[in-house]
Amino acid sequence: MRAAVANDPQQAAIHHVSSELTTLAGVPARVVRELGAVRIEVDITEALQRHWEQLLALLAQGFDFGLTDTDTGQVAWLRIEAGETFRS
Fold first, then answer.
1. In this predicted structure, what is the pLDDT of residue 18?
2. Would residue 74 be called left, alpha or beta, if left means φ above 0 and alpha means ψ between -120 and 50 degrees?
3. Minimal CA–CA distance to 31: which of 11, 51, 3?
4. pLDDT in tens for each of the 88 residues of the chain?
5. Per-residue pLDDT, 87
6. In the chain, what are the helix, strand and coil shares in percent, each to the nearest 5?
7. Are 77 and 66 in contact (CB under 8 A)?
8. Contact 88, 33 (CB under 8 A)
9. How much is the pLDDT for 55?
10. How far from each other are the two terminal CA atoms of the chain, in whole angstroms?
11. Which DSSP category does 26 fall into?
């Protein structure tokens, strides 16, 4: 029970950031579970480029963040530390 309560702020942060990125980019953000972290990523769209300051503020909520070039464009991503619920 205690682990679930401890993860509530993390769950809320993950939901908040992914929802905001989806709204700003106009495309769904992707949530990827990793060992000890959750990575949230979104394609850089024209709409998202118009909200660059908001994007940077959202990325800064992660303990690690960046931009990655792909064959089809760029992806912005951040990692949020995750509790035991996300470890596999």
1. 97
2. beta
3. 11
4. 444 544 578 888 899 999 999 999 999 999 999 999 999 999 999 999 999 999 999 999 999 999 999 999 999 999 998 864 433 3
5. 34
6. 45, 30, 25
7. yes
8. yes
9. 97
10. 19
11. S
Domain regions of the chain by residue span? 2-86
Hey, what are 17's tokens? 């950031």
Q: Strands 37-43 and 30-34, how do they pair?
A: antiparallel
| 35-49 core/surface letters (b: 16 or more CB in 10 A; e: else) | eebbbbbbbbeeebe
Topology of the domain comprising 2-86: Phosphorylase Kinase; domain 1 (3.30.200)
Range list of β-strands (E), 12-63: 30-34, 37-43
